[in-house]
Amino acid sequence: xxxxxxxxxxxxxxxxxxxxxxxxxxxxxxxxxxxxxxxxxxxxxxxxxxxxxxxxxxxxxxxxxxxxxxxxxxxxxxxxxxxxxxxxxxxxxxxxxxxxxxxxxxxxxxxxxxxxxxxxxxxxxxxxxxxxxxxxxxxxxxxxxxxxxxxxxxxxxxxxxxxxxxxxxxxxxxxxxxxxxxxxxxxxxxxxxxxxxxxxxxxxxxxxxxxxxxxxxxxxxxxxxxxxxxxxxxxxxxxxxxxxxxxxxxxxxxxxxxx
Length: 259
What we know:
This protein is α/β, with parallel strands linked by helices. The chain has one domain (3-258): Histone deacetylase domain (Arginase, Chain A). It is 41% helix and 13% strand. The chain has 9 helices and 7 strands. Helix 4 (70-91) crosses helix 5, helix 7 runs parallel beside helix 8 (212-229) and helix 8 (212-229) packs parallel to helix 9 (244-258). The longest helix is centred in the first third of the chain and has 22 residues, at 70-91. It is globular and about 45 Å long. The N and C termini lie close together (6 Å).
């Protein structure tokens, strides 16, 4: 099966901030591989998230704070729109991966840190929930850094939307994969699988833990269990990853298992 890659050329714009996550060159290696393999990848272009979309996940003061910085708001809204497109594509039965910037899993409803501004994952899932397309979701967050924004916005809600989140804690690569599969085996009733896909756990990145074949296995687990539980509805959103030389290989490895 092919996989839809959500991407916009404006994501190459790194002028919105001076932090490491905005550094130029991050997406180049990823998109070079993706564009070279049309038999596996189809690139689709998103539109920005609307204000209403963003305000499902964030309070108005936080929205206005980001909006006061024109380019940051433009790109953050476009990233959130990319996440929404990936979620909608997955909900319609086609696996998708959103190659978006800025990232989002450290953004809470009223604050943000860790190079994140709007919570792309929360915005995308809450969009589906608001349209009554899903009631329950599972998130695998395999970024090196726990996605506290995902947890703060999406866990322990009082509106009927149920989200379970796994941030694996194992520090040995074999046990890491085992931890993920053991968790997935216990899932019985969700409507969509989603991944906050950070690649800074890579062996040649900050975490010095996961090899390309491990990312393939994570993708395969997402595929296998989503097909068992929710008709294969699954999508992933790009979060962290700092060694630009290996990012393309690691993303491609994950997507090959995920497709």
